[in-house]
Design goal:
TIM Barrel; binds fe (iii) ion; 10 helices; 18% strand; binds adenosine monophosphate; binds zinc ion
Length: 286
């Protein structure tokens, strides 16, 4: 079984429609794929309808959160939420709040760029986001298409990196509250790429311990942003805390170079994850 538990469609900052994503997953011989767009469930229906016989879709989302280290430093983190009830009102309201904040924040980034004569237009960014959750990758693409950067990566490196002159923070959920909210909606919360150091500061071990106490189900360990030492240390923590271990590509279409299926989740870990879902949403079969 080939299982990839973290991918993005153009319902957020991936470049493939949900149905195309399923076709790409089928071509890569994946048996199970999770759709985890940022702060939205908008792609679930289309992805489910596009499933081929024998394939399984795990509906999910990647929630923007913030955690505090013991030193008090705020760290942006991502929480993968699987198989939660999309109609559960509290979590649905939080997702809507996050998307709204992203929209205003992206507008302010474009204003700041324009003030320095880096002329991407808000219309262009909105067109690229096509009604989905707006993220910095959409601004990055607009910068590329307008000749201000060579690639999405280059646009991040020049302009959009965390803490840079054009970085505007967005609203994030408190990570511990988010873990509880996902459980309350029947879902299974997994800490996405906890040691993705390339993107900025990462959390201390005690944050993982606290989140496990709040109901965290697992750690996404096999991810291309994790080096071998971090993977070993995270595996030891997962064993100690009784957490599920997942692996994934975090596929974003042509917004990133990582191919779908780049890292995978072991079948027994996947089964353990599905067994923890308590709501009305189950994996969808093709
Ligand atoms: P946002 O959600 O708007 O804060 O943007 C963060 C997203 O941008 C992440 O989910 C990544 O997919 C993507 N990203 C972050 N850093 C880079 C980078 N250096 N190159 C390309 N994509 C990146
Ligand atoms: Zn993304
Ligand atoms: Fe992420
Ligand atoms: Fe992601």
């Amino acid at each position: 079984m080939r299982i990839d538990l973290h991918t993005h469609s153009d319902a957020s900052d991936g470049t493939c429609a949900p149905s195309e994503l399923i076709a790409i997953a089928a071509a890569a011989d994946l048996d199970v794929i999770a759709l985890t767009d940022h702060d939205t469930t908008a792609g679930w229906a289309e992805a489910g309808a596009a499933l081929r016989p024998g394939m399984t879709l795990v509906p999910g989302a990647e929630l923007s959160c913030v955690a505090r280290n013991a030193s008090g430093r705020r760290t942006s983190i991502h929480l993968l939420a699987y198989l939660f009830d999309p109609a559960e009102p509290r979590l649905a309201a939080e997702r809507a709040r996050l998307r709204d904040s992203r929209l205003h924040r992206a507008e302010r980034i474009v204003e700041r760029l324009a003030a320095d004569r880096i002329g991407v237009t808000w219309e262009h960014v909105r067109l690229l986001a096509a009604g989905g959750t707006v993220g910095r990758p959409h601004i990055a693409r607009a910068l590329v298409e307008s000749g201000f950067a060579e690639s999405v990566d280059d646009a991040f490196g020049r302009y959009l990196y965390d803490g840079g002159p054009y970085h505007v923070p967005k609203l994030d959920l408190d990570a511990e509250a988010a873990v509880r909210a996902v459980r309350a909606a029947g879902g299974v919360p997994v800490f996405a790429h906890p040691r993705a150091r390339r993107r900025g500061p990462v959390v201390d071990d005690d944050v993982i311990v606290t989140l496990a106490g709040a109901g965290l189900a697992g750690l996404e360990i096999d991810h291309l942003d994790h080096g071998p030492d971090d993977r070993l240390q995270l595996r030891a923590m997962a064993a100690e805390l009784g957490l599920i271990v997942t692996g994934s590509s975090d596929f974003h279409g042509s917004n990133k170079t990582t191919p779908i299926g780049a890292c995978l989740t072991a079948p027994e870990e996947y089964e353990a994850l599905v067994a923890q879902a308590t709501g009305p949403v189950k994996p969808l079969q093709g």
